[in-house]
Write a structure and sequence with these properties.
alpha/beta, eight-stranded parallel beta barrel, 36 helices
């Protein structure tokens, strides 16, 4: 790759645009876009992701890179009238990461590159501010030491704290130039002790090492963990942005901030963001010092405020979306350091999408693409009961909504450890940093005493959909003693239960009860989107869901086994039942009837047991068909191994042994034990179940078919419209299906004759074995429909036992990157998906009108729904709660494919 002499590895900000994110990363592409728009962007250049890929693959930078960087650095120096790190008039630069997809805080940044023992005096003279120069120098050593030289960052923090304690001040801004000179010497000593070398004084060496460090940061543990969490591909690499420094720490007429064109928590329009006087950008993002609301900038520096508001409007109109902006003011001069389409909460995503439609910036199809099924699922989570008796202990900034309850923990290690033990935890920190990512993932919610809506905790939590409250200043967090103290003196020890409300910022001691979300009430029909008092969020959800339903091709059915679940699924928008598991109808008091069936020694005993089950099964189906009147109901005949209906073999053996010892009657238990031994299998999921049961136990499947047929006839007599479909499970060969189908058709004909009702019941099968998928063309000759059972298909394709592997080694597979996500959560497109695709093609080739669906839980997974749309299924089926998610994603899949077709 690096031998291609025509390949360009460095682009000036004037050369790129926002469409080059693959090459320039998100940050570089957007810096170029702002430069093109004529906005005040400090000059600089971007090293491409291709250079990073070469470095990561070969362990060395491309041979051409140094010369290209030198040429762009020369041009930058000429433009600025300064040279990098020269003693009398130094140019300083920042070296910042910038991947294609935003990864806030996960990769490295170094500011003030070019400062040294020689140039610090030149910077002081240039700025006429000695304190500023030494503050900038100590920041460089601190960031460079931690990021580039891998020095423990706590050592620098402790040294800075010692300097403040010696001066008896609380803020680093209270340290003067003399104090900071001492801090610099202490920092240099820390570097020397930790690395065995002096802090590098050559400015070009500083820059080159920083560039290499940014490349390396792509593969840090925290970056890889974040990519797995957000499903970002690991082979993209990061760009590196080298930008001339502008300084927010030059005094009270300088500062730095982060702004949003709309509130990322609610979506409402207004002035949202944080500002910090006399500071550099990392201070805001890290949450080390508490900021002031952006609106206060108007009274601090009205000229810059007015200019910023105009730029924000320009950017939002240009990007047609919420923009997240970083800026610095240097002595009254506003500079734009970054913009990107901002992360937002689920509620904000829906509100903003509809607002932008109303403003004419986007259309309904684009609005649908701006929201996701995962965000909709978040909105369906419960919220705190406002009428409950609660003890509020504090309040912070509502950074990411939700109602989170858990035990207080004060470090990431404990959060992960307790979470893995089944505990729900709230991670409490003064402020989070990228090293806390694994604890943030493990926690139910995050609470910090410092920082604002733009702090690391807030930005990452919003991206993950985690509840977060930031900047609860009245709460004193002591991570060393593992406790938090409220303003009134209440002490929260590690392990105490706390509740945090990310929608209000309120913090409570103890567990606060929750109530259903208004979005669920809307789907349940208890709240009407057209009502005057309807929640604004509900209105937005209604509009987007209505459009999704209009454009989607995939129908959405429910996995439901009783009338109650079916009715709820119908309220949630289900267009039928894609999977009724009849084995769930054999539990409880009916278990003894199944035992009698298994123990039957004669045809008469077996017939008697089936006769007793028939009316119960029929009643179940009548209720189900009534709840889903006019919509298809796919009934799967009995599937699981029969041992699941029998007593535990160990318990039964003990019971028989005790009865024998006491000389008590035990003939029935003994017969049952013999049956259990006879039916015992080493691997029951691959044994006597599904169609094999129907073939081995005479009358079992025909009893179920008769119950379905009689129930359908009864409903038709009652002027109902039952649309039953009979599904034979675990078929591996067409001959199995043909035998069961012949018997089923005979039973249906008998019921039609007996009732005088013409019955048309579709007969089909589940495709859940690799052989069934491979021979789908043959099976389609006897099947009017296929429903892909992707849970079992995933097990049989991978050779995984789902009941065992998720608890045993899946965690290691996810951590090692073998899986990006569990194949039971999102369909494995390359393996399982390939079988689904080929089975669809073969089935339709044999029977063009065959109906095709999926009924594994993949049917409600957003990413999988897009795959099922792509391969041409007719419907997906999932649990009732996931139906709205599947409806939304089916709409997004249709709108997205239509958009790509038009392009």
């Amino acid at each position: 790759m690096s031998e291609n002499k025509d390949q360009k590895f460095v682009y000036d900000f004037t050369e790129g645009n926002r469409d080059l994110k693959d090459l320039l990363g998100g940050k570089g592409a957007n810096l170029a876009e702002m430069t093109n728009l004529g906005l005040p962007v400090p000059p600089g250049f971007t090293i491409t992701t291709e250079a990073c890929k070469v470095y990561l693959e070969s362990g060395a930078e491309p041979a051409e890179l140094r010369d290209e960087v030198s040429a762009h650095l020369d041009a930058l120096e000429q433009q600025m009238g300064k040279k990098l790190g020269q003693a009398d008039n130094p140019l300083l630069v920042s070296v910042r990461s910038g991947a294609k997809f935003s990864m806030p805080g996960m990769m490295d940044t170094v500011l003030n590159i070019g400062l040294s023992d020689d140039s610090v005096a030149g910077l002081a003279a240039q700025a006429d501010n000695e304190r500023f120069a030494w503050d900038s120098y100590r920041r460089l050593i601190q960031m460079f030491g931690k990021t580039v030289l891998d020095v423990d960052g706590e050592l620098f923090e402790e040294a800075l704290d010692e300097a403040k304690e010696a001066k008896k001040v609380s803020s680093d801004t209270d340290l003067d130039a003399a104090d900071l000179k001492k801090v610099v010497e202490r920092f240099k000593a820390i570097v020397k002790d930790a690395t065995g070398r002096d802090f590098p004084q050559d400015p070009r060496e500083q820059m080159d090492l920083a560039i290499e460090a940014v490349f390396n940061s792509w593969n840090t543990d925290r970056a890889k963990l974040y990519r797995r969490q957000e499903r970002i591909p690991g082979d993209l690499g990061t760009a590196v942005n080298v930008c001339s420094m502008v300084f927010g720490n030059l005094g009270p007429d300088s500062g730095t901030g982060v702004a949003f064109t709309r509130d990322p928590a609610s979506g409402h329009q207004g002035v949202y963001g944080d500002y910090l006087q006399n500071a550099q950008g990392e201070d805001v993002v890290a949450g080390i010092r508490n900021t002031v609301p952006l609106a206060e900038l108007e009274s601090i520096d009205k000229k810059s405020y007015d200019q910023l508001m105009q730029i924000m409007e320009t950017l939002e109109t240009h990007y047609k979306d919420l923009c997240d902006i970083e800026f610095t003011i240097e002595r009254g001069q506003l500079w734009m350091l970054q913009t990107r389409v901002g992360k937002r909460t689920a509620g904000a995503a829906f509100r903003i999408a509809t607002q932008l439609v109303d403003q004419g910036l986007i259309d309904d199809a684009e609005a649908l693409q701006r929201v996701t099924g995962a965000q909709l699922a978040q909105l369906m989570f419960p919220k705190f009961d406002e009428d409950a008796k609660v003890e509020q202990i504090g309040r912070g900034i509502a950074a990411s909504p939700g109602a989170a309850v858990g035990k207080a923990v004060f470090d990431s290690y404990t959060a992960v450890k307790w979470s893995r033990s089944g505990e729900k935890v709230i991670l409490i920190r003064r402020e989070t940093n990228p090293d806390d990512l694994d604890g943030m993932i493990a926690a139910e919610g995050i609470l910090t005493s410092r920082g604002g809506k733009t702090s690391h905790a807030a930005v990452v939590a919003r991206g993950m959909g985690k509840t977060c409250v930031c900047g609860a200043e009245e709460l004193e967090v002591d991570t060393k003693r593992r406790r938090m103290t409220t303003a009134s003196g209440v002490v929260i020890e590690e392990g105490d239960v706390v509740s945090i409300d990310g929608s209000t910022g309120k913090v409570y001691v103890g567990e606060v009860p929750v109530v259903p979300s208004p979005v669920v009430e809307y789907f349940e029909g208890r709240m009407h989107a057209g009502a005057d008092d309807a929640d604004e969020l509900v209105q937005a959800v209604h509009r987007i869901m209505s459009y999704a339903d209009r454009v989607r091709r995939l129908r959405v059915r429910a996995n439901a086994d009783n009338a109650e679940d079916a009715a709820r699924a119908r309220r949630f928008g289900a267009q039928g039942i894609g999977l009724c598991r009849t084995e769930h109808m054999f539990l409880g008091e009916r278990r003894e009837m199944v035992e009698k069936l298994i123990l039957a020694d004669t045809d008469e005993e077996r017939a008697e047991a089936l006769k007793a089950l028939l009316p119960l099964q029929k009643k179940d189906f009548v209720e189900l068909f009534e709840a889903m009147d006019g919509l298809p109901v796919t009934v799967r005949l009995l599937d699981p191994p029969l041992h699941e209906f029998l007593p535990d073999i160990t318990e039964l053996s003990v019971r028989v042994a005790l009865a024998e010892a006491r000389k008590e009657p035990h003939e029935n238990d003994l017969r049952l034990l013999q049956a259990v031994h006879r039916l015992h299998e080493q691997n029951p999921m691959l044994g006597l179940r599904g169609v094999r049961l129907g073939l081995v136990i005479p009358g079992l499947f025909t009893m179920q078919v008769r119950a379905i047929a009689e129930a359908a006839a009864q409903r038709m007599d009652a002027k109902g419209d039952p649309r039953a479909e009979i599904m034979i499970p675990l078929v591996g060969t067409v001959q199995e299906l043909e035998i069961v189908r012949e018997d089923a058709e005979q039973v249906i004909a008998e019921v039609s004759a007996q009732t005088g009702v013409e019955l048309k019941l579709a007969l089909g099968t589940m495709i859940e074995l690799p052989r069934a998928a491979v021979t789908a063309g043959q099976i389609a000759e006897a099947a009017e429909f296929f429903s892909f059972g992707t849970n079992d298909l995933t097990q049989t394709v991978w050779g995984f036992s789902r009941d065992d592997v998720e608890a045993s080694f899946f965690t290691a597979y996810l951590e090692k990157g073998i899986f990006g996500v569990s194949p039971f959560e999102t369909i494995d497109k390359d393996g399982v998906g390939a079988l689904v695709r080929s089975a669809v093609e073969a089935g339709r080739a044999t029977r063009p009108d065959i109906k095709l669906g999926v009924c594994g839980e993949h049917g409600g997974d957003p990413e999988s729904v897009h795959f099922f749309h792509e391969v041409g299924l007719d419907y997906v089926s999932c649990s009732p709660f996931r139906i709205p998610v599947a409806r939304l994603e089916a709409g997004r899949a249709a709108a997205g494919s239509a958009g790509s077709d038009s392009r």
